[in-house]
Amino acid sequence: MRKLLITELNRISVEEFKKSEKYPIVVVLDNIRSLNNVGSIFRTCDALRIEKIMLCGITATPPHNEIHKTALGAEDSVEWEYFDDCLDAISSLKKGGYSICCLEQVENSVSLLDFKTVSTAKYAFIFGNEVKGVQQEVVRRSDVCIEIPQFGTKHSFNVSVSAGIVLWDVFKQIYTSK
Hints:
By secondary structure, the chain is of the alpha/beta class. It has helices spanning 14-19, 35-47, 65-71, 74-77, 86-95, 136-141, 159-177, and strands at residues 23-30, 50-56, 80-83, 98-103, 110-111, 122-128, 144-147. β1, α2 (35-47) and β2 (50-56) form a beta-alpha-beta unit.
């Protein structure tokens, strides 16, 4: 085996990315305080051709050096929109026909192992604050709450890790169903 050179990776340009077909997934960040987490999620969304990111509440917006440090330019390719209140973002998504999926540990949550996508559906995934999680009112307005199974002494992942796990799993389901 030989490690590939950057020129061999067939990366598309920002302009090509913006014109490309996206997967019907929107990421909603509910009061994320770490700009590094925001940047990391932008990068994941770029890699998986996610449709859009909605930044809500205290979540910082580009342009910002701390977001760029981990996004590495993905903040320029991935479409984003800012909302003062996450509930307004949810209302907009519901009007657009999105299924609202909250990543949170709640009563009657659905294990990510059991969450199955429908190829014709559009999804919005909400990820919450690093300490407080997703706001309770946002949880109430969600169609489903998904939980990532965990088996160690800790009961949470970093928000950018959670986003990577969930988005990859959902992407894989949608991608292989085409």
